[in-house]
Structures are given as C-alpha cells and as structure tokens.
Design goal:
By secondary structure, the protein is of the alpha/beta class. The protein has two domains: 135 residues, Rossmann fold (3-Layer(aba) Sandwich), CATH 3.40.50; 137 residues, Rossmann fold. It is 33% helix and 20% strand. Strands 2-1-3-5-6-4 form a six-stranded mixed beta sheet, sandwiched between helices. A six-stranded parallel beta sheet has the order 9-8-7-10-11-12, with helices on both faces. Helix 7 links the parallel strand 11 and strand 12. The longest helix has 13 residues. The radius of gyration is 19 Å and the shape is globular. The protein starts with a strand and ends with a helix. The mean pLDDT is 96. The structure holds NADP nicotinamide-adenine-dinucleotide phosphate (NAP). The site of NADP nicotinamide-adenine-dinucleotide phosphate has 22 residues, from helix 5 and helix 8. NADP nicotinamide-adenine-dinucleotide phosphate binds next to helix 5 and helix 8.
Length: 284
Amino acid sequence: MIKAAGVMGFPISHSLSPRLHGYWIKKYGLEATYVAWEVPPERLAAKLKNLPDLLGENGELFRGTNLTIPLKEKALEIVDIVEEDARAIGAINTVVVEGDGLLIGRNTDGIGFIDSLAEKIDVADFKGKTALVLGAGGAAKAIVFALIKMGFAKILITNRTRTRAEELADHLTDGTEVLDWDERESVLSQVSLVVNTTSLGMKGQPALEMSLQGLKAGAVVTDIVYTPLKTGLLLEAEKNGFVAVDGLGMLLHQAKAGFEAWFGVRPEVDADLREFVLQGLADK
Ligand SMILES: NC(=O)c1ccc[n+]([C@@H]2O[C@H](COP(=O)([O-])OP(=O)(O)OC[C@H]3O[C@@H](n4cnc5c(N)ncnc54)[C@H](OP(=O)(O)O)[C@@H]3O)[C@@H](O)[C@H]2O)c1
C-alpha cells in the first residue's frame, strides 16, 4: 500500500512542506507521496472529512495532512480528537488519520521550536529562568506553550497591540507577564532567552528595532523569521557574542512528528536537509 500525506493552506504555493517531505521520502526510499492542496477555509471541513476515503492517482491511501495559514484554528472544530498540545495552543498543524478513519489533530510547532533550540544548547538550563517573547500573533501561541514546557519560571510577552499580548497571557496562564512594546529593551538584564515571533525583520517587512545592549551574559537569541535566515536581530546577537538560533530549524523539526505518524520512519534534520530546503526558499 502506497502511503500519502499533504499540506492544506490558502494560498499554498509558498509552502516548503512538499520539498521537505519529498526529501525525506527519497532519502528513506519510501513508497509514498506528499502533495499540496489549496483549500479555501469554507472547504476545509469537507476536504478533511474526505481524507480517510481519498485515493491518490496511483491508489495511494492518505494518512493525514499538514495545515497552514489560514486553516490551523478552524480545524479544531472539525477533527474527531484534538490532542492536548493543539488544544493548549489553539491551533492544529498536523492531522493524522487513524486506522478506524478518525482524524486526530496535533500541534507540533512548539516541540519543533524546542528541538531547534536543542540543536545548539541544552534546553534544560532554561529551567527557572526568564524569557522575553516579542509578538503575540498565531506563531507566538506555540512559542509560549513551548517555553512553559521548557520550564521557564517567567515569560514576558510584549506586542505592538497590547491587548493581543494580554489575551495570549490569559490563554496560557503559568508565569506570563505583559509589557508595553516600548519596554522591550528595559527588561533585558533579567532575560536568558529572547524570541522574536513578530514578522518584523522578514523580507519585505520593516526592521525590528531592538538593541541587545544590557542582555544578560550567556543569553540565547532566536528569531522564528527565516527569510532572511540571518535577520537583523540574529546579526546583532552574534556581533555581541550571544548564541543565535535561526527560524529554519523550527520549520524542519516541526515536520518530524507528522512524517513519522504517516510513514512510519522517524526522519532526521541534518545539514543536507537544511541546504536543500534553503535552496527551495531561494527559488520562491
Ligand atoms: N520558523 C517557523 O517555523 C515559523 C512558523 C510560523 C511562523 N513563522 C514566522 O513568524 C512570523 C509571524 O507569523 P504569525 O503567523 O504569528 O503572524 P501573525 O499572526 O500575523 O502575527 C504577526 C505578529 O507581528 C507583529 N507585527 C507585525 N507588524 C508589526 C510592526 N510593524 N510593528 C510591531 N509588530 C508588528 C504583530 O503585532 P500586532 O498584533 O500588533 O499586529 C503580531 O504580533 C512570520 O514571519 C512567519 O513567517 C515562522
């Protein structure tokens, strides 16, 4: 039986998931396919419900799908079972079709973020420390969830629109505190991890105005924006001797759990994969 999975989004042509999963399918010599579907939000329920009965062009059976913007939140009311991580984050990025046809919704963004940091540092060292999160959009929910999982004692959240930061803090209570956007540099001496989850610094977007003067010695700086790979924030971090972690790792690591559930192989994130996906980014 040939297994298949895909990614649904609207639009979908920007997605790197087919390239990423296609690389692993080839690397592990699997009889499998991974496709991209453009699905308008109003068609999501029908598309997902049909997945267990869908046959691919070569008779492939669909084992699940990834979901991307703007479908991640809507899927919560459609799948049969929502796993704990997805419920806490409030979004689903991976759907797995169980043997009985039930649809299971997961969120692997938080664990992808943790695994990406773990490539460079021992994340256990963050236990009891303070983190600063810039931004309170869709991606920030998964990041704050991951920080709670990592054992941070305090998570400071700042966002241009303060009410969104407050909503995020209320949703994921433990140890969160909201700051005004203008206060973002004033807390750096307490902070062991800085995470940019805003779209600032992304190609085509304004720069992130953020000096790292006064950041605690030994702190880690990470940016989930990955176009460009080295954002202004990461360049500033490296210049000042801080460990800098780019956003591509999160994108690659979040994909592992879905691939394993659909195709039965735990894939690896390595330098060759990074290079291959980066080439795809350059072509977009
Ligand atoms: N590495 C990965 O795997 C990964 C995964 C997901 C997302 N991302 C990246 O993360 C970024 C955010 O994605 P998202 O889905 O969270 O987007 P989103 O829901 O639209 O949130 C955007 C965030 O950026 C802030 N922002 C936008 N323009 C701003 C400005 N001029 N000044 C200050 N803040 C501004 C917004 O603040 P307001 O609330 O005030 O509007 C909000 O906090 C994107 O670059 C995306 O590509 C990366």
